[in-house]
Amino acid sequence: MNTVRSFSNILVTGGAGFIGSNFIRYMFAQPDFKGTIINLDKLTYAGNLESLKDISEQYEGNKYFFEKTDIRDKAALDICFTKYKIDCVVHFAAESHVDRSITGPSEFIDTNIIGTFNLLEIARKHWLNKEGNIDQSYLFHHVSTDEVYGSLGDSGLFLETTPYDPRSPYSASKASSDHIVSTYYHTYGLPVTISNCSNNYGAYQFPEKLIPVMILNILEQKALPVYGNGENIRDWLFVDDHCSGIWATISKGKLGETYNIGGDNEWTNIKLVNRLCEILADRKNRDKDDYKKLITYIKDRPGHDLRYAINCEKIKKELGWKQSLTFSLGLETTVDWYLDNLEWVKHIQSGEYQKWMNQNYNMR
Ligand code: NAD
Ligand code: TYD
Questions:
Q1: Domains (ranges, CATH) in the chain?
Q2: What values do phi and psi take at 353, rounded to 5?
Q3: Quick one: pLDDT at residue 220?
Q4: How far is the CA of 176 from the centre of ligand 2 (A)?
Q5: For the chain, how are helix, strand and coil distributed in percent, rounded to 5?
Q6: N or C: which end of the chain has fewer CB within 10 A?
Q7: In the predicted model, is pLDDT for residue 129 greater than 90?
Q8: From atom 10 of ligand 2, which residue's Cα is the shortest distance away?
Q9: CA distance 149 to 196
Q10: What is the pLDDT of residues 165-224, one digit of tens each?
């Protein structure tokens, strides 16, 4: 039987991003969660507080707080830990888009490696100062990716024990931060856990990742850019199921351990794009071939990993985690979410979301 931890003041870094905002919403929906969430985010192009409008209306100033802070700013992190008496960190903040890491790796090194190191240093300082210094009442959780394991051939699955073999600046920066987090457990005894998850999809995903790009281009009847021959494989997981996996790890995971989270759901990119064409044709009462003919094969991504696929038996067996949604239902739900939230998309596409944040949060 695992000890179940509970926390009072959870610092969510990168809470204005895709998974972070879904995680905050997920936490407030848990009947047994009585704590406070502090969302710490620099608000890069990928951070959008409009994604948390409902949460901020319901909880801001009471159980939800927002701090516009860069994880590279150690002094600001220190102030934040003191101000809110942080006892759990769920670290999402990162530069997350592989294509951007190829054209501009430096932000990835700065945020994902140096930023994570800063956060660990401050977390360790406050953990050491904590009365009693009891492991079960303090935790640093690192949200990471399956991309650290590299690329699979036609067979095999990533296990927690698979050697790291990152191929892009993004995955190398996440691999590096995983290693640093792990050393803080082994060297300093800081209570940490790590999760490595496969590709997420769902509501509020920034429209530069595969699924939102395709949904929005189909709606605008634009070309659907498929890299290379479209045969690359990803293992897709609904974002809420990633959130429940993180919550299971934080509350019940063994300290110092890594848990893989995945969808048992491998799709080639081309099959997925075709499926999105079919769902949207159904919603719009159109012929699916009108959309499929928009598919355009373009130059491949440099170093494009062929296949990702996760073995997530450990989190299932040890923490009792399981997925709640089939891919078929999850994909339809996601398409419907974008159709119902075209205002949110429009604000991103026009840059209006930055203006909205300035008005509502008095930011530059
Ligand atoms: P995202 O790009 O949507 O969000 C990242 C958030 O981090 C944004 O709100 C951004 O403003 C913030 N941020 C960036 N740099 C910062 C800095 N220096 N200081 C403070 N905040 C900063 O990313 P996402 O898809 O939500 O991914 C979140 C985490 O989950 C990342 O660590 C990523 O590596 C990991 N992950 C993502 C996936 C996926 O499929 N998206 C899968 C597995 C793991
Ligand atoms: P992406 O959503 O960028 O996630 P990741 O690179 O982290 O897996 O891409 C998912 C897959 O889709 C990947 O194999 C690259 C491919 N892809 C395209 O074919 N076209 C696109 O426009 C995008 C954004 C991705």
A1: 9-362 (3.40.50.720)
A2: -65, -30
A3: 95
A4: 22
A5: 50, 15, 35
A6: N
A7: no
A8: 210
A9: 9
A10: 999 999 999 999 999 999 999 999 999 999 999 999 999 999 999 999 999 999 999 999
